[in-house]
Write a structure and sequence with these properties.
- The chain is α+β, with helices and mostly antiparallel strands and 335 residues long.
- Helix content is 52%, strand content 16%.
- It has nine helices and seven strands.
- The strands form two sheets. Strands 3, 4, 5, 6 and 7 form a five-stranded antiparallel sheet that branches. A two-stranded antiparallel ribbon has the order 1-2.
- A hairpin with a 4-residue loop joins strand 1 and strand 2.
Length: 335
């Protein structure tokens, strides 16, 4: 029985201690405290939910200011430092809130710009108190001591450098999304880019251009009178170029690299007919100074056929390679 009573009293003491801890956090000891700012921010956001127009934005603006002020106050009362620096963890949290407030949007809360500016803003928040002396009611500006200036400069500069590297990551990520053909290139000579995934062996957008262009060319040549096909081949540069631009516009419109692809034909005579090479030429940046291009060859030969009226005529038969070939270097000159 005594043991049971002790357990019951122990449970009551635990609940009482838990309640006291929660009450200490939630109930402000005085009106001017960090809890007051947090409650004001929550109250502002609730009001902004029911407001409309520019009033809604104004109330939400003050809600953010109250949240930043309350968070900064709470995290600086007993600051926990980031290992190896004098930056409080609270400055990191406050810096994130300031970055979201300054660069966030309703459509996308976390944007690349927020992540980029986060380290620098956190460092500036850490440095600001070093230029102020006094208490909350009697504060004035001051110049930090020489030894403090050095660590402030190192902290801000290193944070700005970190922001630059983060920005570089987003720039590279954007390049590879808008110019996916760069993934097929080599980065061996780069001093700051390291490939972490298996390289793409052939640029897929170049392949798509030829795969979509081939059936159009085949349709214009196959089973046409041989004399018309020869005239078509004489004007192949203009015809294939026009068809290529249409294919690029339709299939690569979502990529910025659509401006860096050009389509050209190469026509060569053979003993039995012609060879039509369809080229998708990359004119963007490349580790090879001469660039590269993709080629799909089509063999065009005359064959005998019977017209609808029963007459014997000569028409064109065309057969193209199944796969495109990646060729480094400049394309051959047009004959």
């Amino acid at each position: 029985m005594n043991t049971l009573l002790k357990d019951v009293f122990g449970a009551f003491k635990f609940v009482e201690g838990l309640y006291a801890g929660i009450r200490k956090v939630l109930v402000p000891p005085k009106a001017y405290s960090w809890q007051t700012f947090i409650y004001l921010s929550v109250f502002s956001w609730i009001l902004s939910y029911f407001a409309i127009g520019y009033i809604k934005d104004i109330i939400a603006f003050f809600g953010w200011l109250f949240l930043i002020a309350g968070t900064a106050w709470y995290t600086t009362e007993d600051p926990l430092r980031v290992p190896g620096t004098f930056m409080p963890v609270g400055a990191v949290i406050t810096g994130f809130l300031v970055s979201v407030f300054a660069f966030g949007s309703q459509e996308e809360v976390i944007t690349p710009r927020i992540i980029v500016f986060w380290p620098t803003i956190s460092a500036l928040i850490t440095a600001i108190p070093e230029f102020i002396e006094g208490n909350d009611t009697d504060a004035k500006a001051r110049i930090p001591k020489p030894e403090d200036r050095q660590r402030i400069i190192i902290l801000v500069a290193s944070s700005m450098l970190l922001s630059c590297w983060i920005m570089f990551y987003f720039v590279m990520d954007n390049w590879l999304r808008e110019y996916p053909s760069l993934q097929a290139d080599s980065f061996k000579r780069s001093t700051f880019v390291v490939r972490t995934i298996e390289p793409v062996k052939i640029p897929q957008n170049g392949v798509i251009i030829l795969e979509k262009l081939q059936p159009i060319v085949v349709e214009e040549i196959a089973e046409r009178p041989w004399s018309e096909v020869e005239k078509w081949l004489l004007d192949a540069k203009q015809r294939v170029g026009t068809l290529g631009r249409e294919v690029i516009k339709i299939n690569l419109d979502q990529y910025d690299e659509k401006e860096l692809w050009r389509v050209e034909p190469r026509v060569a005579n053979t003993k039995s007919g012609y060879i039509l090479d369809l080229l998708s030429i990359w004119i963007g940046p490349s580790s090879n100074p001469r660039g590269y291009y993709l080629k799909k060859s089509c063999r065009i030969e005359p064959v005998a056929a019977t017209s609808n009226s029963g007459n014997k005529i000569t028409v064109a038969e065309i057969e193209c390679d199944r796969a495109s070939k990646l060729i480094p270097g400049s394309p051959p000159p047009q004959q």
